[in-house]
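Lecture notes, structural biology module. Today: joint structure prediction for complexes of two components.
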Amino acid sequence: MKANQIFYFLTLAFTGFILVSCEDFFDTTIEIDPPQHDKRISLVSRAFAGDTALVMNIKGSLAVLDAKEFPLVEDLSLVVLLNGLNCQITEEPTFSQISGQETIEYKAHFNSPLVPGDVIEIKASGKEYNDIYATDTVPNSPIIEDGTFILDGGRDEQGEEVMKVNFYYVPNVSKAQYFNQSIIIEGEKCFHFSSNEKGELICLERRKQTSKSPCDLIDPRAINGTQGSLMKQEISDGRKLYTCQTRRVFDSNDSIVGATMQVINVSKAYYEYDHSVSNYFDNGENPFATPINVTSNIKNGYGVLELGNKKLFPLKIQ
Amino acid sequence: MKKIYLLCFFCLSISKIFSQTFTISGYIQDLSSGEKLIGANVYNEATSEGTITNNYGFYSLSLPGNQSVEITFSYIGYQNEVRKINLSANQSINVDLTASITLDAVEVVAEKNKRIERETQMSVAEVPMAQLKKVPALLGEVDVLKALQLLPGVKSGGEGQSGLYVRGGGPDQNLILLDGVPVYNASHLFGFFSVFNADAIKDVKLIKGGYPARYGGRLSSVLEINMKDGNINEFKGTASIGLISSKLTLEGPINKGKTSFIVSGRRTYLDVLARPFIKNGFKNEGQDGSVGYYFYDLNAKINHKFSDKDRLYLSSYGGRDRFFFKTKDLEGDTRDFADNSLAWGNFTTALRWNHVISPKMFVNTTATYSDYRLKTDFEFGSNRSSDPDYVDAFGLNYISGIEDLGLKVDVDYVPNPNHFIRFGANVINHTFKPGEFSLYNESSNENFSFKDTIGQANIGAVETGLYVEDDWNISKNIKINAGLHFSSFLLNEESYFSLQPRISGRFLLPKDWSMKASFATMRQYINLLSFEGIGLPTDLWVPSTAKIKPQDSWQAALGTAKTINDSYELSAEVYYKKMNNLVAYKDGAGVFQTDDWQNRVVQGKGDAYGMELFLQKKEGKFSGWVGYTLSWTYRNFPDIDNGAQFPYRFDRRHDFSIVGNYNITPKINLAATWVFSTGNAVTLAGTRYDGTLPQTDNEFFGYSGNDIEVFGNRNNFRMRSYHRLDIGVNFTKKKKRYERVWSIGAYNAYANNNPFFLYYGNTYDEITGNTKRVLKQTALFPLVPYITWTANF
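The predicted structure, tokenised, for the full assembly:
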């Protein structure tokens, strides 16, 4: 076979390849099967010291591509124990503001308000689901001394407009305390501080967004509760004086009608779940970030049972 | 100091013991071009003693004196040269070898000393450049790194990507040396092409394990790329025109026999070709604008031979990628404008001085400079034709990179045929630039002006290394390479030190079989923060710090090797690699975030183990190789998945490649490649649940989603398997003044839809009229034909 014959043959074959593949050439996206659905019960519930009932959202999970409403668990068997004693459980029809559908909330009633150290256990099972189990303990009241909370406007060392609040905080030296959802509200805007895993207070900035989730992160460093600006601290009479200082998030024209600081001492499960969920919603759409797994303390299930102890402090405004 | 004295004493002692010998030494080079041949073989048939040339073509062989010996000089692809030498004194013998031009017959080169079973170094991949250049390539762009991905133990990051993932390691764990200078970003066009212009490269060697002590600083591989020195005898050139780029290489003597140069440049021209169409498109929108992308690179080298004892080399590489987008309104009083660009590139320089101290001792001193820089500019705003003083603009610039200044001294000492001792030292001054944002905002309308610079300050660090190693023939059948590598990393806040023992050995078995084993520990002080899989220019090099510990590894390998019928090389290896202090992004962290990088990463462990089979035929009418890898690679981070072990993204159970190259006639060459590999591991959700918190009173604030997806463990899902056939034909013809080559071929010839990335998206169902959510897989290159014209003159 001569060289030119080989050349013509190969050119022909090459053209053939192109023609054969023309259909696929511009269609490079195909549908494939997703990972398998790991079917489990989800339980989401939160209570604070002083509450007399625990409201629970209990549903079945769905495959990620299943567009249906989350199903109620068929033949649900639910047991809630407070310090080892059975609680009465009621089912209450409710209207989901998110899905716009009727659903059922489960409520466990306590004989007396929750106090620090109370242990709640939940056991649930249903048809076609594994049994789930969750437990959490009501934490102590946050140890922050009142009477010194002053919301103060001013300027920092660089001359930037800031707002700050000073307060005394008595850290629990024996173990890390988890603080969460501790906010200052002044009319329409708020800012927020939290703690990291070591129990150190961290100042994060948030801005009001919706009525359901009134504050939204505006400081990109405020991820997972481990970043942000560590508050300045000074030792004074054996206590620690903290100054939470953030950029000014309101205009000078805004009239501040009043401010309250809410401090919640939360359980570890509460802290981890809340931070992972906030991380999930803040970064979930970023294709260049690693996917976020929301933590859970529900054995064999999804969701969280989280307990907290909150305290409100009115703030003076200067 | 004590150690240096001991070392000198050791060297002199060995020298003394063998003082009854004479040494022949010199350079082995290509006859026509004068290019020094690396790894050429010098062999005494009678006594089975021999040596090989070093990276500069220098050899030294000491033999018992007062005898006449027949020494064979050989190199793959070249005709052997046998010389009778009367050993009555030390002799300097430079040898010019002639390239083999016979293609019909199978050329058998008696490289007896360099046969695979005789070498102590295992886990090494050396493929002749001539063979690599014939491998069919994406868009006809011959790419050394992509050709290396066809070898066992080496994986690519994804479709078309040029990054290397060696034995379970990451792309930052490869020490890529271009003429001895580290190259930090080896990618053009977002990773689809490597920065190495094949026309300017003389030699490529990849070491995957059993690292000799002279290398350090990375955990997973050493890729040594040596540029051509330039033809010292006559002017030569190569020009080629391809679909996306053109190349021109010129080389020749400045002072014949003494000084030579080589210059090689490459540039893409898609931006130039598309400019009129893009301009017209913007014009139709009432704008003046341009958008485009290009890359270029330039290699240059000059070398001068002062004498047989002294040579000087100066080599440089510069390359840059740039993506730009500019628009400007053509009409109206207030005209909007935007000027955006993204540029990145490397610049490296090496000044090397070779000095032959004695026939047995060769010293190379190298001063190096390496700079990798990423620069992003965004600017937009408006101006007014009626008011030249009016300005309303916002600008954001970002700069990051790494700059190295280094000095190293490497000494080769060959006291006798049973020892090849290497020792040396190096120091690198790193300047890490972890990222700096410059912002400005100016508005004459609001009488407002703002200018600020934020980001992280440059970090300086000094990395040093000391090494000694010996390639030692213990007996006729046993040979080892043993050595020690000491390194340190000095920062303001912290200092790290490490002593890394290395040993590898071979035991000759009957019938040309050999057993090999190696053990090596490595330490790495610098980390690459990048989004796995895509060679984004946002890659950020950062040092080990007080908080982020250096990466460590040890690797053990066991293997066997054999040369079959003097033509085929067969090797099989099993390996286990343990890695500590690996760096990975936390859940939710990634690129395009501005906080301190140390808070975005976590450290953990990694394991990799597997088996590699390799059968290679390096030359002849038919050449090529078959490679197969069976491997497992896992990661374990205390802060990810609660410390559970998860597969590495590039954990691929099977990796198979066949590369064939057939010379149909002296003028026509047919090449084909087929690869198959298990799909990458990715993290995808399969389940979702209702995370709505029941509403309670006094809920000031709190995250509560009604739909939370469960990802399970990291990298829980396998992409589909990857397979691809590439074919290419080269038609060569001698013309009056030059030789022309037409290269025609196709990448992914049977248009397989190989997975590039997966995502959840919506699709419209024509039957029900509803939109439904689906998991989609996107491929990049279904079938990409190429055609390239090359002229060698």
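Point to remember: Chain A has two domains: 41-137, 144-295+308-317.
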